[in-house]
Design brief:
Radius of gyration of chain A: 23 Å
Largest sheet of chain A: 4 strands, antiparallel
Number of strands of chain A: 20
Shape of chain B: globular
Distance between the termini of chain B: 46 Å
Order of helices and strands of chain A: HEEHEEEEEEEHEEHHHHHEEEEHEEEEHE
Strand content of chain B: 5-15%
Number of helices of chain B: 16
CATH class of the largest domain in chain A: Alpha Beta
Radius of gyration of chain B: 25 Å
Number of helices of chain A: 10
Structural class of chain A: alpha+beta
CATH architecture of the largest domain in chain A: Alpha-Beta Complex
Largest sheet of chain B: 4 strands, antiparallel
Strand content of chain A: 15-25%
Largest interface: A-B, 37 and 37 residues
Order of helices and strands of chain B: HHHHHHHEEHEEHHHEHHHHHE
Oligomer: heterodimer
Number of domains of chain A: 4
Number of domains of chain B: 2
Strand order of the largest sheet of chain A: 2-1-3-12
Strand order of the largest sheet of chain B: 1-2-4-3
CATH topology of the largest domain in chain A: DNA primase, PRIM domain
Chain lengths: 373, 346
């Protein structure tokens, strides 16, 4: 990114941080957390400890970071090197990202930027100008992406509440600031489990690694009664709703499943898992030392803010998470895709000089689809 | 602390307090080498150990937790304690491991029977107490099942490789896992073994007991035969690593977790950072400085000094990086691929 683009982003971010201190609060048990931040075109600074909102605000104004992070883990010495921190426990965290949902809309709003010649195009395999395969992909998520991510958040909440007995008030959902949602679970029985145990939890939530026997299908001594009932709890219940469709079809479908055999059941189970398993990023949940984007901070991949979703169903990130100013700015834009922000339509632009509000210019510059004129 | 009777110690002789029974009887260890009256105990201890080295479970004289004569119960307890003394005299770790495994299996059978006794609440309570006292797992009985908090279940099942133990293949309800008596006990098998191992390891080694030298020599020789003498490797890469290399060679994007796997695997095979770095050249976001920094970090030459090891097969499955073939042969970590153990068994 060029110097004047960075300057523009830093100015815009600084203004946001200065005007929206109310939005940026340190999480509970602040002094046990590790904080970190990144600046544009620079590496990560981490192992920082912060005591209160005031110290955090000072850090933001002094450093104007591109991204700010805070650990989900609690440590005795959060500012020591990793192996001396003395890990105590960690909140459960989940990342749901539209890019992981295999949505058919993705291709229509994903573009590639060639690492060799900076050519922007909608061709996602090779650069049309220099034929290089080193392409960076950028997506401008659409309403469908956000709706599909919300569906995953709802599925996740259902499993957390119904199967794992998490209290609803201990689940907090945030828009990630780019293409998805971050879900936090506080004060659960899982606070102290390690990375490998969290990975098992991920497999449970995503319905991965299930064997036919779990859903009633056996290799030998097959028995119709071992198939799940329609009203059963947990994954067996969800499975039966998905596979049987209705109570009345259960018997007929079990007959079919039995006649198709064990290996065909396993294949069907894998398909069912793809459909009803919750699509969470396993690496995020498994990582017990992660510093995770701080709520209230700006995501430098978009210029949007990571904000709490009070009412997920009504939440619209493209109106509610854009806090940057409307001041006009002139940019060179090369953005082949149309997008909406704050109820205004922008693009497509083909290598043109245009004047637009700061919030939209920041969005495009963050996506590497524009630069300051 | 549990209040136990002799019959319970006969079933669970590794519990705190069993040694006291021996002390109360006033037998010094040296007496076992010379006293013909104690010979049956010595024979039993040796038998108990031999069965364990053959991978079997010693069959006790107690039937359904009961014995007609108190001496039978005492013989059970003493033979266990003496077996530990004999192992300590051999100083062989292989024997400790095998004996602990066999004894934990035996205790497992008793625990399972006690938990399954629907009519005998005191037996069930005892088994539940043992599980809580030794392993801190809160088990609640409900109808025919035992309910365990999911977090406890995960902590104890995490090293099981059979798929049926994955949480997804368990009955989960309201934050608890529902288990049958046999599965409840199976869950703590390894820890029961570890508990017994730690008991033996921490026990003091007595001086040689005159009269038991031949038995100790016999056990030492059995122990030597069980120790793997060398390992050979085929040198071929496992399918997950081949796949990762393929992806990079094609210039496609290998996720961070895949790069971590590849780098830690190659480091574990003795390759240097300089040898590994060029592999990542084709990655769409290749940056030499970052790659070297990360590789040095993984190898422990920079940062915290920790050398990172290759993730387990289980973890790689979760990350969609596993491409298992029959050649994997039940390994649990890619770094074990192609390794075959040779035993100098006669």
């Amino acid at each position: 990114m060029q110097e004047n683009d960075i300057q523009f982003l830093e100015d815009s971010f600084k203004k946001y941080y200065f005007n929206h201190f109310d939005q940026i609060k340190v999480p509970e048990r602040t002094s046990e957390r590790e904080f970190g931040y990144q600046k544009f075109n620079s590496g990560m600074t981490r192992h920082i400890s912060i005591k209160n909102d005031k110290e955090l605000h000072l850090l933001l104004i002094q450093n104007v970071p591109s991204d700010v992070y805070c650990s989900n883990a609690y440590y005795t010495f959060p500012n020591s090197p990793m192996n001396e921190k003395d890990w105590k426990e960690a909140d459960l965290i989940f990342d749901i990202d539209a890019k992981d949902l295999n949505l058919s809309c993705r291709e229509s709003h994903t573009i590639s930027i060639c690492n060799e010649c900076n050519e922007v195009s909608k061709n996602l395999t090779r650069c049309l100008k220099c034929n290089s395969s080193k392409l960076e992909k950028k997506s401008l998520p659409c309403k469908n992406c956000i709706d599909a991510s919300k569906t995953e958040v709802s599925k996740l909440s259902e499993v957390l509440i119904d199967d794992l007995a998490i209290d609803r008030e201990n689940i907090q959902v945030y828009f990630s600031g780019n293409e998805g949602f971050h879900v936090y679970v506080y004060n659960s029985q899982f606070q102290q489990i390690g990375s490998r145990e969290r990975s098992e939890l991920v497999d449970y939530i995503s319905l991965r690694g299930a064997i036919p026997e779990t859903f009633g299908m056996k290799k030998l001594k097959q028995n119709r009664a071992s198939f799940p009932d329609f009203d059963e709890k947990g994954w067996r219940g969800r499975f039966s709703k998905q596979v049987f469709g209705s109570k009345s079809k259960r018997s007929k479908i079990i007959t079919e499943l039995l006649s198709n055999g064990y290996s065909s059941f396993q294949k069907m189970l894998d398909d069912v898992s793809e459909n009803i398993g919750v699509k969470i990023d396993p690496n995020v949940t498994m990582d017990i030392h992660r510093i995770f984007r701080l709520p209230g901070s700006i995501n430098s991949k978009s210029g949007l803010t990571k904000i709490h979703c009070d009412d997920l169903s009504k939440f619209d990130p493209y109106t509610e998470a854009s806090f940057l100013s409307d001041d006009s700015v002139e940019v060179f834009a090369n953005c082949p895709i149309e997008f909406r922000l704050k109820n205004k339509k922008f693009g497509p632009y083909t290598n043109e000089k245009i004047t637009m509000p700061t919030f939209a210019a920041v969005y495009m510059i963050c996506k590497k689809l524009a630069r300051i004129a | 602390m549990l209040e136990l009777g002799t019959d319970e110690f006969a079933k669970y002789p590794f519990l705190e307090g069993a040694g006291k029974i021996l002390k109360d009887k006033g037998f010094p260890l040296s007496q076992f080498g010379t006293d013909p009256d104690l010979e049956p105990v010595v024979k039993k201890a040796l038998h108990r150990l031999k069965v364990s080295t053959q991978g079997g479970i010693y069959k006790s004289d107690i039937v359904d937790g009961q014995a007609s004569k108190s001496f039978v119960l005492e013989k059970e307890i003493f033979s266990f304690l003496l077996a530990i003394v004999l192992i300590k005299l051999t100083g062989m770790h292989t024997l400790i491991k095998r004996f602990a495994l066999a004894e934990s299996r035996r205790a497992e059978n008793h625990l399972e029977k006690d938990l399954g006794k629907a009519s005998d609440k005191s037996k069930i309570d005892l088994a539940i107490r043992i599980i809580y006292d030794l392993f801190n797992i809160d088990v609640i009985k409900e109808n025919d099942f035992f309910k365990i908090p999911v977090s406890d279940y995960l902590k104890h099942s995490i090293d099981f490789h059979e798929r049926e133990w994955k949480l997804i293949n368990r009955h989960v309800e309201n934050g608890k896992v529902l288990l049958t008596p046999d599965k409840t006990v199976r869950l703590i098998r390894k820890e029961l073994g570890n508990y017994i191992i730690s008991k033996i390891t921490n026990a003091p080694t007595p001086p040689m007991i005159p009269g038991l030298e031949n038995i100790v020599n016999e056990l030492t020789s059995i122990g030597k035969d069980l120790t793997p003498s060398y390992t050979v490797t085929t040198g071929e890469y496992p399918p997950c690593i081949k796949h990762a290399i393929d992806i990079l060679e094609k210039g496609e994007n290998l996720p961070h977790s895949g790069r971590f796997m590849l780098a830690t695997f190659l480091l574990s095979k003795g390759q240097s950072v300089q040898q590994i770095a060029p592999l990542f050249k084709n990655a769409p976001d290749y940056n030499e400085r970052v790659t070297l920094y990360q590789l040095n970090h993984l190898s422990g030459t920079s940062g915290s000094g920790t050398q990172y090891s290759c993730p387990s097969c289980e973890k790689l499955k979760t990350q969609s990086l596993c491409f298992i073939t029959s050649d994997c042969d039940n390994i649990v970590n890619p770094s074990q691929f192609g390794r075959k153990k040779n035993y100098a068994r006669k």
